[in-house]
Amino acid sequence: MPLVTSKELFKKAYEGGYAIGAFNVNNMEIIQGIVEAAKEENSPLILQVSAGARKYARPVYLKKLVEAAVEDTGLPVVLHLDHGESFEICKACIDDGFTSVMIDGSKLPFEENITLTKKVVDYAHEHGVVVEAELGRIGGVEDNISVGEREATFTDPDQALEFVERTGVDSLAIAIGTSHGAYKFKGEPYLDFKRLEEIMKRLPGFPLVLHGASTVLPEFVEACNKYGGSIHSAKGVPEEMLRKAASLGICKINIDTDLRLAMTAMIRKYLAENPSEFDPRKYLGAAREAIKEMVKHKIRNVLGSSNKL
Ligand SMILES: O=C(CO)COP(=O)(O)O
Ligand SMILES: O=C[C@H](O)COP(=O)(O)O
Ligand SMILES: [Zn+2]
Ligand SMILES: [Zn+2]
Questions:
Q1: Do 255 and 213 meet the contact criterion of CB atoms below 8 Å apart?
Q2: For binding Zn(2+) 1, which residues are annotated in this chain's numbering (predicted)?
């Protein structure tokens, strides 16, 4: 089974009211933990690579590791560029054999975002690759933001329709209150589901993407802190909100922070409990196992993508 695009996967996900997990990958253990979970759950899967991941691992290593994962498991995997900020990085990934790229022009004015996205879409589609874009700002911590501020940063439903029509993009990341990292909300978690429904109404059947969708699982934060870490006031998106988003038009749910926390918690725990151990395979093996169990939980209980192959 070669790498696949997300076209058919999103269509089935939309119709079935579930979402496909898009997990960020940076090294072999993370990739193995995720694909082993998807294999056991019989679930479709998106592996995504950020510019930072490419810089850390170097592009050829990640590409070959993902190819190895596909060969080893036989899973249909989408290889996706996360938050590409220029035409050049999108082109490099398309030329490298990625099946999906994100062009993130969300920091640009609306017209410039359209122009850049359209340029990537034209190149990608010529090469059989699909494109995700972003409209609205998926920011940092949002504390009791006013309606005016929300209007300025959250995705405008009418603009979303115009953006999709004018760019021909395949999926769209929207801002409805999530943010990247482990500190998503200072007060009560809040997602603007009314806005999501308004966007869906204008774009029926069109796949939407939720970034910043880690739940920041308390068990991993607690383990980090128990074994020497210092992570305070961390808060993620509650699982029931993700389930609701998946049952609406959200077809792709992005998860990175939960992988980082699972890995760090396990390495801290393992080394604290085995102070004389210095074989990296031991603590990285424990981390890989924790990632696998966490991803299985997400697939089965949050995304709803078990047995959807
Ligand atoms: O959106 C993400 C990657 O694009 C990851 O979000 P989290 O930081 O919530 O895991
Ligand atoms: O959206 C951000 C992802 O979590 C990737 O993070 P990164 O750019 O540090 O690799
Ligand atoms: Zn962005
Ligand atoms: Zn993101």
A1: yes
A2: 83, 180, 211
